[in-house]
Design a protein that fits this description.
single chain, alpha/beta, about 15% strand, 4-stranded antiparallel beta sheet, 11-stranded mixed beta sheet, globular
Length: about 525
């Protein structure tokens, strides 16, 4: 498959006009790092006793560590849509569940992403890693159509293709499990071109690292502000790692994958430092959703939180989050509420970009990051992977109190001792809702309404009910993109005319091109 559509190498674009000496400071750069299925309890700085995450732990010590930061969904596709648009994913139609290799739908092109806002301000924009917001006919939903001038990565989850005969850890440890069958092998894309199918897992993160270093260095030389969105595949199943990290940790395959993620963050920080950009760059690290405890020791840890991926309990959506900007963000820990929805408004404010003229659900976190230390966010809304207007949000947090109107288990959270987490646990309405004090009981063990709730708790329940009504009055569900169904002919294939599909969609790696060719910026 060759390139399709228009490509916009930022190198060929008009250079950003630089201010004269003494004028306003240069616009800040942004590095957004998103882990995959990383649990609240997986990092050393969040209490895991055997995780090898020195770079992330150092980032936590030197930056701002969040204890009450939330993803906007408990599964991949909707959480990523929310991060990029600042809108609840139901508004964009990213429900129910996630996109498949042959999905007809994707993140609507009418949605404005943070990359598009910054590109309009003269920023260079690049994305590396997992997209999972649709592929579409001829790659019509890929990042290059959503504001990113460069994309090096995989269009969906790396388990959405056969993996049983692939190497995940060198020299020749095969991937654990079989992954999805009956679909094409997982491809690696450069913008819209398939350059490898199936992807070589042990070579993937080193390749990403090389691209990121070159992108940052080129932006520094051109004195152009940039957005780099690094959406890691770690620590999603099946875990993999390069030779440098394979077999190096006490946590086994999961720990090795986590160590490689940590190492990639360290490389990004080193690249900023080497190019003199560390003091003018906001680095933000978080995860798309909670751990897939279905995978047991290969699935991550929610720490002391209840359940994990796929649920609206705390373990499904409360995430580790770190903000780092030397000289601007004071080191510390915040217990204020914040969400991936707040990324776009915050970045837009710092870059001087106008907000989209649509309903936004995020807030500018500048007061929390740089000022009073207080967050403008007061409430968090928890929607299940298959939301609908009839049920609305399953749970709402307001301040320290969280009310569950509905609960449901998820197969992603199977194998834990708590039956409430399991996939066979049905949808259960709660009237009155379950009410928890998350400061005293972050594990959601003790329903305050089962005892004798005090006046503060009862007032919180009334206030949460008001928030629920206000949201439902202004919330409009977009047309479901995922219910548009699947078309096997849309699956990305490096040899479109081959037969029989999907097994014939395999191409030799193009990583041996002459020096200076793909995927260098040129």
């Amino acid at each position: 498959m060759g390139p399709q559509g228009r490509h916009h190498p930022w190198l060929l674009m008009l250079p950003l006009l630089l201010p004269p000496v003494g004028a306003a400071a240069a616009p800040p750069n942004f590095v957004l790092v998103l882990a995959d299925d990383l649990g609240f309890g997986d990092l050393g700085s969040y209490g895991h006793p055997s995780s090898a995450t020195p770079h992330l732990d150092r980032l936590a010590a030197r930056g701002l560590r969040f204890t009450d930061f939330y993803s906007s969904a408990a599964v991949c596709s909707p959480s990523r849509a929310a991060l990029l648009t600042g809108r609840l994913p139901v508004r964009s139609g990213i429900y129910p569940g996630v996109f498949d290799p042959g999905s007809r739908g994707g993140l609507p092109l009418a949605e404005l992403t943070v990359a598009e806002l910054l590109q309009d301000r003269g920023y260079a924009t690049a994305m590396v890693g997992k997209w999972h917001l649709g592929f579409g006919r001829n790659g019509s939903f890929l990042p290059v159509h959503q504001g990113f001038q460069h994309f090096l990565g995989v269009p969906y989850s790396h388990d959405q293709g056969p993996c049983q005969n692939l190497t995940c850890f060198p020299p020749d440890t095969k991937c654990f499990g079989t992954c999805d069958q009956g679909v094409v092998a997982v491809p690696l894309l450069w913008n819209q071109s398939i350059v490898q199918q199936p992807v070589s897992f042990p070579e993937l993160v080193p390749l990403y690292g090389r691209f990121c270093r070159e992108f940052i260095a080129r932006c520094a030389r051109e004195r152009r502000p940039f957005l780099l969105y690094y959406a890691s595949h770690h620590t999603h199943y099946p875990q993999f790692a390069s030779r440098e990290f394979a077999g190096t940790t006490r946590r086994g395959p999961f720990g090795d994958a986590l160590a490689e993620f940590d190492g990639s963050v360290g490389q990004l920080l080193q690249a900023l430092q080497d190019n003199g950009l560390e003091n003018n760059t906001l680095v933000f690290v978080t995860s798309d959703n909670g751990p897939s405890t279905l995978r047991m020791a290969r699935g991550g840890s929610a720490g002391h939180l209840k359940c994990g991926k796929g649920t609206t309990y705390e373990g499904g959506m409360r995430e580790p989050a770190l903000a780092y900007w030397p000289g601007r963000i004071a080191p510390g820990v915040t217990h204020e509420l914040a969400s991936t929805l707040d990324i776009l408004p915050t970045v837009a404010a710092l870059a001087g970009a106008a907000l989209p003229k649509v309903a936004l659900d995020g807030f500018d976190l500048s007061p929390l990051l740089f000022g009073s230390g207080q967050s403008p966010r007061r409430a968090v809304f928890f929607f299940p992977p298959a939301p609908d207007p009839l049920h609305g949000p399953f749970a709402i947090r307001l301040g320290k109190y969280k009310a569950h109107y509905f609960t449901q288990g998820s197969f992603h959270s199977d194998t834990t001792p708590d039956q409430a987490c399991h996939g066979l646990t049905p949808l259960t309405p709660h009237l009155p809702p379950l009410l928890f004090d998350l400061e005293a009981d972050p594990a959601e063990n003790y329903d305050l309404l089962r005892g004798q709730p005090g006046p503060e708790a009862l007032q919180a329940l009334k206030d949460i009910a008001v928030q629920k009504v206000l949201l439902e009055q202004r919330l409009q569900f977009g047309e479901s993109q995922i219910r548009k169904g699947r078309d096997p002919s849309l699956q990305p294939c490096c040899n479109p005319s081959c037969s029989p599909k999907p097994s014939c969609c395999r191409c030799s790696p193009q990583l041996g091109h002459p020096k200076g060719a793909w995927p260098r910026l040129q």
